Amino acid sequence: MKKVLIGIDYNPNSEGVVRKGYELAKKLGAEVCLIHVLADVSYYGVNYPSFMGYEGYNEMAVDLNVISELREVARDYVETAAKHLNDPGVTTHMAEGPTSAAILNYAEEWNADMIVLGTHSHSVLEKVLMGTTASHILEKTKIPVYLIPIKKEDF
């Protein structure tokens, strides 16, 4: 194992995921990269036609700088998380789009040997209806995934 990719989101429990993933990577003597995925925000700048009687998008003056600002906030978040580890060797990557696909694409591009993710404790019904990022990654990945269960009382 030479490269460990750690996925983080805005959940405060990401700190525990990063800490545990980083400890594992260091025990393995592996490089670490933190990845944060910004959901597709391009629709904020689209001027949609009326639909289902809703005129909001035509009437609304959308600030096209919103997308740029969201990207900067996300980039700042992942870079700040990396600095928190106090290890200049930790790299970061900020991606956009569907979370599981973005993580898998970057894992392949970066040649990651392992992906580390936290698993939020959602209800069974939510998992059945929506699935989870972790389960989507597990279905599609070609590399090992290390899952860290997240429960409020753990972190």
Written overview of the protein:
Belongs to the universal stress protein A family. It is found in: Cytoplasm. Residues 1-149 form the UspA domain. InterPro entries: Rossmann-like_a/b/a_fold, Universal_stress_UspA, UspA. The protein contains 6 helices and 5 strands. It has one domain: 3-Layer(aba) Sandwich (Rossmann fold). It has 155 residues and is of the alpha/beta class. A 5-stranded parallel beta sheet has the order 3-2-1-4-5, sandwiched between helices. It is 43% helix and 21% strand. Helix 4 crosses helix 6 (133-140).
Q: How many E-type strands? A: 5
Q: What are the secondary-structure elements, in order, as H or E?
A: EHEHHEHEHHE
CATH superfamily: HUPs
Spatial separation of the terminal alpha carbons: 27 Å
Beta strand %:
15-25%
The structure class reads alpha/beta
> Number of helical segments?
6
What form results from the Cα inertia axes? globular
Family: Belongs to the universal stress protein A family.
Keywords: Cytoplasm
Protein name: Universal stress protein
Subcellular location: Cytoplasm
Topology:
Layout: E1 3-8, H1 14-28, E2 31-38, H2 56-59, H3 65-84, E3 91-96, H4 99-110, E4 114-120, H5 124-130, H6 133-140, E5 145-150
Helix pairs in contact: 4-6
InterPro entries: Rossmann-like_a/b/a_fold, Universal_stress_UspA, UspA
Protein name: Universal stress protein
Main location: cytoplasm
